[in-house]
Specification:
Blueprint (H helix, E strand, L loop, with lengths): L11 H5 L5 E6 L5 E4 L6 H15 L9 E5 L3 E3 L2 E3 L3 E5 L20 E5 L7 H10 L4 E6 L4 E7 L4 E8 L3 E2 L9 E2 L19 H10 L8
Parallel strand pairs: 7-8
Antiparallel strand pairs: 1-2, 1-5, 3-6, 4-5, 6-7, 8-9, 9-10, 11-12
Length: about 220
Amino acid sequence: MGDIRGKKPRTYEDIEAPPLPWVAETLEGLWPEPGPRVAVDLLPLVHRLGALLVRPFDWARGGPGGWWFLETPELHLESGVVVPSLAAWRRAQVPEPPEPRTPWLTPTPDWVCEVLSARSRDLASRMQAYHQARVGHVWLIDPARCRVEVYRRGSRGWARVGMHEGSARMLAEPFDAVVLDLGTLWLQEPALTAGTPKGSVLVRRASAVASEPGRGAT
């Protein structure tokens, strides 16, 4: 995130400063770095993922219900401010969504999704922040590879419990009560080739950092 020496400590005014639709995220007291909440070209994918999950897991139509979802929520976690692509809370823990004008949320989500893009350079720090906040599951979506990787929180790091590609029909924690059609996420039919690397560099880096002994909450 750059050299922060000589800069004043972060304040919420620093976070609010960038013009909409930009937001400044800050982790572990570091100087906030502005960026778009979600890259514009990825918004349709985020909307489609939300639609795929909301019907069975929020509205309880064809699924168990029991969740509510928010796109690009501003989360004030133990380690700082972070804005995932999508997040969800179990109604058993947080019964109702906040009022529409609520500027940020402090309850830890049970699930977050990060759609990988150029702004994912701090993914390792974000995964660490989610682990410290006790987020139960993280999905990492790589649109370039038409891939979803599913991570479950463990006491010492993240365990990858699923990887789904292309147009597969997937059962993915914590939404494994319903088979999801992965192909509906992509703008066009994915063409996967032999030798496609298993897991992006960013994903491997995040997994390695989050699983280092002594890192994260227990």
